[in-house]
From TrEMBL:
One of its GO terms (molecular function) is transferase activity. It comes from Candidatus Paraluminiphilus aquimaris. Keywords: Transferase. InterPro entries: CoA-transferase_III_domain (IPR050483), CoA-Trfase_fam_III (IPR003673), CoA-Trfase_III_dom3_sf (IPR044855), CoA-Trfase_III_dom_1_sf (IPR023606). This is CoA transferase.
């Protein structure tokens, strides 16, 4: 049995945040019904590498779900959704504030139908304030949440080349929903959840990215940023290696492993505090030695000395590494539409076992009839909705 079996989720979303959150819950056993508009469905279906209406991005965010294609601009479409709500545990959406209310599917309305419902609303900037109605995509949130500032140096911002805030918001939503489900088991009532991408992004980056903006007393000592110490690669003759020198003992072993232990007698580097203070000078002195070693030679030396390190891998090297094979992390499967595909399995092991992945991502409206029938709509009612273009 999977942890979230018997939980039913209606997802109203486009792009990443709500899609990722509900996909993770689908992997853990929840039944997730993705409610998609009539025309093209979730636009994520058509972004980047794709086959038919299944893009790689869509497949990665929507496996294990059922797709219901329905016209929410029609009164009958809205009433059909409302008729499903008594049997639903969670509604999750990432529309701008007010959109679901205009559709007639707002939190108060749906929770009046089902007081045990967990209604989860994801927004870009929150429901109040000057940006509450502004469009929000990951780069905008990286700018507003301080991710770009934390990644850059000085006045030069740098953006993470991944949908970081989208994904961390999805993780945050998943955690919040499961917490709300746990609370419902105790008190017997549902609730409304609000969360924003900007809050999720700042909460995520703040603990290390804002170290010098946390302590506010005048007498505290400022120190070097952890991210400035850990994340500069060390260049070798055929690539680069990342090394974490988190203590004086590790730094001693590092310098010994590359035959430069004499630097430990230099007053600039004779203690951990001094090494951290003068880390850039240390790196400049060590750089020529690293440049004379291959990545494999460097890693072999450092691992023998128990120094945390890793070769910086290409995407191809990442997917072919023995560690992932040992973990059983990546799987090749045959999607009925997209064909042979690769997927990364859900990370948690429950009882020492990885959860069996759900079926591949659905085509647009693939499960419309079966979903409606499972909620008690008769064949005649389903045909009526189709005849009136409420579903296709």
């Amino acid at each position: 049995m999977k942890p979230l079996e018997s939980v039913t989720i209606l997802e109203f979303s486009t792009m990443i945040t709500a899609s990722l959150a509900s996909m993770m819950m689908a992997e853990q056993g929840a039944r997730v019904i993705k409610v998609e508009p009539m025309e093209m469905g979730d636009p994520m279906r058509y972004i980047g590498a794709r086959k038919a209406d299944i893009s790689a991005l869509f497949a990665n965010c929507n496996r294990g779900k059922e797709s219901l294609r329905i016209d929410l601009k029609s009164a009958e479409g809205v009433e059909t959704i409302k008729a499903m709500i008594p049997s639903v545990d969670v509604v999750i959406h990432n529309f701008r504030p007010g959109v679901m209310d205009k559709l007639g599917l707002g939190s108060e309305c749906l929770r009046s139908i089902n007081p045990k419902l967990i209604y989860t609303a994801i927004s870009g900037f929150g429901t109040k304030g000057p940006l509450s109605g502004a469009p929000a995509y990951d780069p905008m949130i990286q700018a507003h949440a301080g991710v770009a500032a934390a990644q850059g140096r000085g006045d030069q911002p740098a953006f993470m080349r991944t949908l970081l805030c989208d994904k961390i918001t999805g993780y945050t939503a998943c955690q919040a929903v499961t917490s709300a489900l746990f609370m419902r088991e105790r008190v017997g009532e549902g609730q409304h959840l609000d969360l924003s991408m900007i809050d999720s992004g700042l909460f995520f980056i703040f603990l290390d990215g804002f170290q010098n903006d946390t302590l506010l007393s005048d007498d505290h000592e400022r120190g070097p940023m952890l991210i400035d110490i850990l994340y500069d690669p060390w260049l070798c003759s055929d690539g680069s290696v990342i090394i974490s020198l988190g203590s004086y003992e590790i730094q001693r072993r590092f310098l010994t492993a590359i035959d430069m232990s004499e630097l430990l007698e230099d007053p600039r580097f004779d203690s951990f505090e001094n090494q951290i203070r003068n880390i850039r000078e240390l790196k400049a002195l060590v750089a020529p030695r690293c440049a004379g070693l291959t990545c494999d030679d460097m890693v072999d030396r450092l691992r023998l000395a128990d120094v945390p390190c890793a070769k910086v891998m290409t995407r191809e090297e990442v997917l072919s590494q023995e560690q992932l094979a040992a973990n059983g992390t990546v799987e090749i499967y045959d999607h009925p539409v997209a064909g042979l595909s690769r997927r990364v399995l859900s990370p948690p092991l429950f009882g020492g076992e990885r959860l069996e992945p759900g079926r591949g991502a659905p085509t647009h409206g693939q499960h419309t009839d079966s979903v409606l029938e499972s909620f008690g709509l008769s064949d005649e009612r389903v045909q009526h909705l189709r005849n009136n273009a409420v579903i296709t």
